[in-house]
Amino acid sequence: MTSSSSSHLPSSQTPSPQTPSPSQPTPLTPGAASEKKTATGDWRVVKMLLPYLAEFKGRVALALILLVIAKLANIGVPLLMKDIVDSLSPAQQVLSVPVALLVAYGLLRLSSTFFAELRDIVFIKVTQRAARRVALSVFRHLHALSLRFHLERQTGGVSRDIERGTRGISTLMSFMLFSILPTLLEIGLVTGIMFIKFDHWFALITVAALVSYIGATIAITEWRTAHRRQMNDMDSKANTKAIDSLLNYETVKYFGNEEWEAGRYDKNLQRYEDAAVKSETSLGILNSAQSFVIAGAVTLLMWRASEGIVDKSLTIGDLVMVNALLIQLYIPLNFLGVMYREIKQALTDMEKMFNLLGENREIADKPGATALDTAAGANIRFERVNFSYETKRQILFDASFEVPAGKTVAVVGSSGAGKSTLSRLLYRFYDVNEGRIAIDGQDIRDVTQVSLRASLGIVPQDTVLFNDTIYYNIAYGRPEASREQVIEAAKSAHIHDFIERLPDGYDAMVGERGLKLSGGEKQRVAIARTLLKNPAILIFDEATSALDSRTEKAIQAELKEISAERTTLVIAHRLSTVVDADQILVMEGGRIVERGTFNELMALQGKFAEMWRLQQQEAARADAGLISPLRPEDR
Fold first, then answer.
1. pTM to 2 decimals?
2. What's the rounded mean pLDDT across residues 566-578?
3. Cα separation, 502 vs 498, whole angstroms
4. Each residue of 48-78: pLDDT tens digit?
């Protein structure tokens, strides 16, 4: 009846509110509403899991048959024990040991264990395959969700939800099919035997004990649920705080805020501790109630059996059989509370994971969406585009421009002007509020996202790498590429020589988010990765901002060469990097305020000319040693 608390914390979530049915206008009380929502959420989780079991219908059926055989063998043991005891009693003693009965007894014992183990062997593939498919579905769905969701999510909490939910599937299947169903079957068989072989008091006492036990277990466990859910919430929050702090290790060190971070983490641990104490206290109450019911039932049944022996209506074998049946009933009943709690917890864990599947795909392919066709040369058009991340703050205003196929268009402007938003919209991380974006006349909302993004290649300002080898991170641009192609891309990005000087060469690990590499080295890996992808459209979002001047010039020459026959959108702060662009767009406050070639914009003597003069003055002062050259992020 006791249950050890997990060393780390199980999960839970309050089920999402259910829409009231029109046929039920009477509002529920808060307690009833909570109970209704919980029950609805539990059934919803079970229904969502059933399709994942359909693949192995045969195995499920065979496992259930083996389950029944194992339980019948288990119940047969006390019945056979009665015959053995009676055959050895002084009143009916035979001349020899009842060998056949003893052999049958041994076979029943063996069958009970053998068929139970065989059942587990048959069913394990079903459990593991279902867990795998659900986890994979959630993982794919998370990657299909919009950038908005991923900017708002907390990585630690989401990863823990998936981990607990996957574990919950195994728990639910194991307990539901191999604990609850066998227990119910055994309860039914024992009650039936009591009713048939003994007087009605045996069956009544057994049924009354079962009803009291199950009722007390469910009532107290439901009361405990709130504390378990609070433990889950505090677990997720503590885990999120820890991961967030460790990911920002350098920032924590810069400001000496180790104790501040420890304090934030400890606040959630303290709340978890309080909820855990309440949960374990309620567990003690539950165990006591269960023990009281079981002890009372055992005492009453043994009393009735003893009276039967005294008045000779029952034999010693009957007493042994009743005792054995009670022990076999007591064992599953002893764990019924644990099973119920674990099933409820598994359902809660799975609900939280399945809720991730319920997250709306803000950006989804239209029904019948076709693949993007860039055979005509990948001409890009922004047509009167208005966009806002939030309704209260508009980012782009009536943005219209064209990037002709094979040409280079640069976008410049101050921070917050909306430059990087253009690339996010082009990648369709968000959809425009008004207007449209077209590639070769095809509205990007009408084509599949896979084909759209396959045609785009970006070198972002903030390059984040996987915690793997340099080779893996470059090859990520085209995983099926040969090693020679990966090395060629690294040479084109001017990082091959640096890699060769490393002790492990291309097998060197880059660390979490690429922290073992400098900003310039990470940027060159990103450039190599994009070169390897070989897309029809290139986007350089401050692509050389982290490079030194000498490397920048070498990379710029290489970028100019590879973008010569590709449609290229350059987002830049350093104006010197866009001098050769076919057209330059100047953005201010989400609007395009100037456009033209470099010479045209300089002749205009407007915003671009002002920015150019300011940057030239900074460069001159840096050359004179008066100031350090400023990178875009420093300005």
1. 0.59
2. 86
3. 7
4. 677 767 777 788 888 888 888 888 888 888 8
Long-range contacts from 18-26, C-beta under 8 angstroms, 24+ separation = none
Q: Which amino acid is it at 145?
A: L
How large is the C-alpha radius of gyration of the chain?
35
d(CA 210, CA 221): 16
Exposure string over 91-124, b if 16+ CB within 10 A, otherwise e:
eeeeeeebeebeebbeebeebbeebbebbeebbe
Calpha distance 346→175 (Å, rounded): 10
- 487-511, pLDDT tens digit by residue? 999 988 888 999 999 999 999 998 8
What is the pLDDT averaged over residues 236-243? 81
Give the residue from 209, 404, 463 showing the smallest Cα distance to 474: 463
Is residue 21 very low, low, confident or very high in pLDDT (cuts 50, 70, 90)?
Answer: very low
Bridge partners (DSSP) of residue 502 are none
CATH of domain 50-357: 1.20.1560.10
Distance CA 76, CA 112 (A): 9
Residue 2 has pLDDT above 60, yes or no: no
Considering the chain, tell me which residue range(s) the CATH 1.20.1560.10 domain(s) occupy. Answer: 50-357
β-partners of residue 566 are: none
Positions of CATH 3.40.50.300 in the chain: 380-455+535-634
Handedness of CA 301, 305, 310, 311 (dihedral sign): positive
